[in-house]
């Protein structure tokens, strides 16, 4: 079962990567002519949704693996794991702010919040690799 959880964990990271692609698609959509812009915004919305599903699955499978193999206690793992959790929390807060609060209607907040969430996820991957290699 652990392998199944880790498989889903890594596939979920692929879903999150789609949302990271929105950092490149967003500026293109803003510059594009109306019909193309509408299409790009539809793709951006889809990637955002898939990314949110991926982040939720990362939490669920991560907690699952933590209990399955490490007794549910993150303190028993190297400090890099706690740092990883910190960056995951930062990414999650960023996603909540840009998708579920009134700030989601403010393009500068969405752009900066999105970049912070993207960077936090990349750092979380680095810290995961350093923890479990
Ligand atoms: C943005 C969120 C997350 C990302 C990008 C992420 C990324 C990764 C990656 C890349 C690995 C594989 C590391 C390797 O084998 O070298 C991994 C493993 C793991 N992650 Fe996450 N993770 C996230 C969230 C979480 C959360 C929320 C938890 C727990 C609360 C968690 C717990 C674990 C555990 C326990 C393993 C490894 C298990 C093992 O192979 O022994 N992850 N994660």
Verbal overview:
- This protein has 133 residues and is mainly alpha-helical.
- It folds into 2 domains: 1-72; 73-133.
- It is 86% helix and 0% strand.
- It contains 4 helices and no strands.
- The structure holds protoporphyrin IX containing FE.
- Protoporphyrin IX containing FE is lined by residues 6, 9, 13, 55, 58-59, 62-63, 65-66, 69, 88, 91, 121, 124-125, 128-129, 132-133.
- Protoporphyrin IX containing FE (HEM) binds next to helix 1, helix 2, helix 3 and helix 4.
- Keywords: Membrane, Transmembrane, Transmembrane helix.
- The chain crosses the membrane at residues 42-67, 79-98, 110-132.
Provide a count of the helices: 4
Number of domains: 2
In angstroms, what separates the terminal alpha carbons? Answer: 20 Å
Tell me the helix content.
over 70%
Bound molecules: protoporphyrin IX containing FE
- How would you describe the shape? elongated
Provide the gyration radius in Å.
16 Å
* Total number of beta strands: 0
Mean pLDDT: 96
Query: What portion of the residues fall into strands of 2 or more residues?
Result: under 5%
Following the backbone from N to C, one meets helices and strands in this order, namely HHHH
Which structural class is indicated by helix and strand composition?
Answer: mainly alpha
Biggest sheet statistics: none
- Low-pLDDT runs of 5+ residues are none
């Amino acid at each position: 079962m652990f392998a199944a959880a880790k498989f889903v964990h890594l596939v979920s990271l692929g879903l999150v990567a789609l949302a990271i692609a929105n950092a490149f698609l967003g500026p293109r959509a803003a510059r594009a002519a109306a019909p193309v812009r509408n299409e790009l915004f539809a793709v951006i919305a889809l990637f955002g949704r898939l990314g949110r599903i991926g982040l939720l699955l990362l939490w669920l499978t991560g907690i699952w693996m933590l209990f399955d193999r490490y007794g549910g206690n993150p303190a028993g793992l190297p400090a890099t794991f706690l740092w990883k959790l910190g960056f995951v929390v930062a990414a999650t807060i960023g996603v909540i702010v840009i998708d579920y609060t009134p700030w989601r209607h403010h393009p500068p907040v969405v752009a900066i919040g999105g970049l912070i969430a993207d960077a936090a996820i990349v750092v979380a991957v680095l810290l995961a690799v350093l923890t479990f290699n």
